Q: What sequence folds into this?
């Protein structure tokens, strides 16, 4: 007789500075590995989480969802109590925030309707931003960068911003927001939302926008980059330390 299993979503946040991204890898410490170990220890059942997506080495997450199955609902018990115990086993730079019972076919990756990222930059040396923001030497032309960023909403094929040799079925993404905003006099943040993202896509977009902001290309150059479908035409990827996955939305959460 098949064992009845119950599916849960777990919401986490982490500082990615010490990790080789979210997804389990051989010979590298990842966030998923530590979360799976904590859940397996507490639930006494081999747990393999499925994340809403992958993050690169050094990238942070203010909100990331993963799903997992347990043999029986009673195994989990009080979700608040389990979260407390999970956090006790996780290192200080990873936090479990919510545990939600969901339908058996709910999927953290495939059901995500929208994902949002932020890329943080600053202009003066600040020990409290080290590893969490990219320090720039000069102030770019924010108006030109926002003009170029708006062009992203007019396209859907973002092959030019994708890491090569990735195993994805399509490079089509629908971007719904792309803009730079000043947080204060010394901090400039890029906000972007889409239904899905390709590997390295946000860092490549920011690198391209920075070239435009430094006057290397006019804003309309963004059309040329996207239409080329060639990664070598786009700008260099910016450092991972400034990138944050900030929100993942689902129709049923």
A:
């Amino acid at each position: 007789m098949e064992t009845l299993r119950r599916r849960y979503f777990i919401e986490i946040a982490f500082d990615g500075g010490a990790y080789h991204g979210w997804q389990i890898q051989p010979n590298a410490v990842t966030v998923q590995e530590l979360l799976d170990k904590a859940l397996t220890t507490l639930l006494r059942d081999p747990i393999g989480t499925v994340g809403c997506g992958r993050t690169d080495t050094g990238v942070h997450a203010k909100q990331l969802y993963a799903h997992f199955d347990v043999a029986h609902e009673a195994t989990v018990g009080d979700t608040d109590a389990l979260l407390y115990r999970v956090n006790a086993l996780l290192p200080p730079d990873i936090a479990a925030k919510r545990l939600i019972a969901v339908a058996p076919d709910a999927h953290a990756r495939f059901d995500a309707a929208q994902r949002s990222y932020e890329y943080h930059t600053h202009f003066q040396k600040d020990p409290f931003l080290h590893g969490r923001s990219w320090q720039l030497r000069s102030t770019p032309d924010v108006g030109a960068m926002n003009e170029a960023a708006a062009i992203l909403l007019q396209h859907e094929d973002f092959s030019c911003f994708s890491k090569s040799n990735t195993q994805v079925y399509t490079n089509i993404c629908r971007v719904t927001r792309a803009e730079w905003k000043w947080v204060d006099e010394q901090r400039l943040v890029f906000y972007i939302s889409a239904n899905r993202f390709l590997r390295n896509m946000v860092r490549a977009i920011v690198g391209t926008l920075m070239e435009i902001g430094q006057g290397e290309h006019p804003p309309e150059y963004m059309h040329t980059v996207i239409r080329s479908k060639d990664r070598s035409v786009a700008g260099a990827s910016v450092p991972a330390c400034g990138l944050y996955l900030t929100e993942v939305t689902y129709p049923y959460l």
